[in-house]
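Appendix B, example 12.
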Amino acid sequence: MNLQHWKVLIAVASVTALFILLFQPFSIKHHGDLVYIVAIAGYGFVGALALYINELISVRIVKVTSSKNLHLITRFAVGSILVPAFIFLYKNILSGFKDFSFYGFSIVFYRTVLIATFIFPIVYLIQKKKDNKIRKVVLESESKGEKIIVAPEEIVLLESASNYVFVYLLNNNNVQKRLIRNNLKKLEKEMAATSLFRVHRSYIVNMIHVIFYEKKGEVFNLHLSSTDQIIPVSRKYKSRVVNFFSNH
């Protein structure tokens, strides 16, 4: 799991714990008692632990997938059982297994879904607000001081062309192609901490625009959502690309 995943898990745990403590849904009461407060806040962190394990299981089930959708479906399917199961077990540990039954689990499942409908939109908005603050990348040309300043997600692809680089930019679902005098090695430094990866000596690809990848023997290709180009991945960068898809 990457740093972004950890941030999301911490946000889920914190927001869930805070939500339960403040609103005390489903007749949950702590009466200001510190022990009860800690125990109730634990529901948020148990849920986050379940999400973490869900991520590990999902990655193993779909370790090398050619579809982001398949990975998302797997994560959802496993998580929809795993999270309520962890919370159900935690609830029974606190109560001495007084409600350890299928009916008890169905109630926990229902309540988990209800709380999730409140929590995940909040976490999503928090993360989106942070993402909007991501710095712009500056692609400078070596001639006449020309430069392109854009948000990382607007870049689809950088393609080397001798002493020039073609920059593929997404604008209103249309790809625009611009040419600047530079090379990928210099521009790659500007891409640090973004989803733009060097995948070949001639290409830097924005991984968020990859629909799927295909593997035929030793040939490894990326298919992008915004262009018909098929981008080869060289052996040097193959492991990094596979790791990216395993963690997303």
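The longest strand covers residues 164-171. The chain has two domains: 3-132, 137-246.
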